[in-house]
Amino acid sequence: MTLIRNADTAMYEAKNDGRNKYKIYSSAMGNFVDKQLTLEQDLTEAVKTKGQIQVYYQVKIDTQSKNIIGAEALVRWKHPKNGLIFPDDFIYIAESTGLMVELGNNIIEQSILMIKEINELGFSSFKMAINLSARQFEESTLVPFIALTLQKHDIDPSQVEFEITESISMSNLENTLRILTELKTLGVSIAIDDFGTGHSSLAYLKRFPIDTLKIDKSFVMDIVSDEEDRVIAQTIITMAHSLGLTTVAEGVETQEHVNMLQNMECDTLQGYFYSKAIDKEAFIEFFKAYDNK
Ligand code: C2E
Ligand code: CA
Ligand code: CA
Predict the structure, then answer these.
(1) pLDDT band at 29 (very low <50, low <70, confident <90, very high)
(2) Which ligand lies nearest the alpha carbon of 215?
(3) Residue among 107, 96, 88 nearest 46 (CA)
(4) Which of the four pLDDT bands, split at 50, 70 and 90, describes residue 204?
(5) pTM assigned to the model
(6) Integer Cα distance of 148 and 153 in angstroms
(7) What is the pLDDT of residue 100?
(8) Which of 88, 132, 138, 84 is CA-nearest to residue 108?
(9) Nearest CA to ligand 1 atom 15
């Protein structure tokens, strides 16, 4: 039994490396697969257990007024043994095991409840950005679930924005277009995440009902020192505005970034310069202490 499993592991590794390869089983490979299996089991448990999946929030700032205009919901996994796990280390597991829909719904529900808490502080123009994975787009219950959750918590759909990546838009064009249209009909807005890093054609900007482009942090990072990144960022902003879209810069880390993006007329700023993603309680404290004009 072990022999077969080890051979399978080696085959899997060889496939991962590309075609026509062979691999000799090593115990390190086995450890990797065992760890993945354990994580899979733990994640199945986590999505069912209250408190393990926690949504953190990173503030979004209006470039001109410097007021808080919203936040992005970023999921974290509080693993009972391994501590805090970041999304890049478990979203792919959720996607490959069929857990993504349940996990995604959990994230949507927590984020919408958070809007309610902020509204109760007397601030009703707060907009929450929620990431959607390609896997959630394949599920016909996505839009009804969102509609129901908004209704259940009495939240205006205009307070929610969904962030999708260019990879979603590519995989199944007709389905993507239909779901985006349904979401827009509901009254939520749509942003393209990591804009400029994917391989979508500019024609999709015309075909899809998009409201916002998020300039990927890889362009923002060197915006001060690298002429090319600066030109790319400026081009995205100018193009977005010509098409009637707004722009968000992510990965804003320094005052220089802020100044430059302000000169470029980028609408919204997000990054460590203002705050990392923080848990619900910390975000509410941050929000209360912030000097909104
Ligand atoms: P993303 O949507 O592009 O999110 C931005 C990532 O950049 C976040 O990492 C955020 O913490 C980080 N970041 C924010 N400001 C700065 C900055 O100033 N400098 C730098 N270097 N990084 C910054 P995080 O939270 O680890 O999330 C990683 C990715 O995981 C996200 O990338 C997103 O694709 C995915 N993800 C996160 N939450 C969710 C979720 O709820 N659902 C889905 N489907 N994916 C999620
Ligand atoms: Ca995002
Ligand atoms: Ca991004």
Answers:
(1) low
(2) 3
(3) 107
(4) confident
(5) 0.91
(6) 9
(7) 96
(8) 132
(9) 271
- Does position 269 have pLDDT exceeding 70, yes or no? yes
Q: How far apart are CA 293 and CA 59, in angstroms?
A: 16
Lookup: tokens for 16 = 């991962």
Closest-lying ligand 1 atom to the alpha carbon of residue 252: 18
Query: How far is residue 170's CA from residue 201's CA, in Å, rounded to a whole number?
Result: 9
Question: Is residue 33 pLDDT above 90, yes or no?
Answer: no
Q: Which atom of ligand 1 is nearest to the CA of 273?
A: 18
Residue that the structure tokens 């590309």 belong to: 18
Say which residue, 184 or 134, is predicted with more confidence: 184
Lowest-pLDDT choice from 20-24, 71-75, 244-248: 20-24
Reading the block at residue 264, the tokens are 């470029």
Ligand 1 and 251: CB distance under 6 A = yes
Name residue, tokens 């085959």: 11
Contact 268, 62 (CB under 8 A): yes
| Spatial contact of 249 and 268, defined as CB atoms under 8 Å apart | yes
**Secondary structure (H, E, C), 168-181:** HHHHCHHHHHHHHH
Q: Which residue has the tokens 């907009």?
A: 127
Let me know: does 208 contact 230? Beta carbons within 8 Å: no
Ligand 1 centre distance from Cα of residue 272 (Å)? 12
Q: What pLDDT does 190 receive?
A: 97
CB 252 within 8 Å of CB 86: no
Instruction: Please name the residue that has the structure tokens 């390609």.
Output: 134
Give me 292's structure tokens. Answer: 């909104």
Expressed in angstroms and rounded, the spacing between residue 8 Cα and the centre of ligand 3 is 35
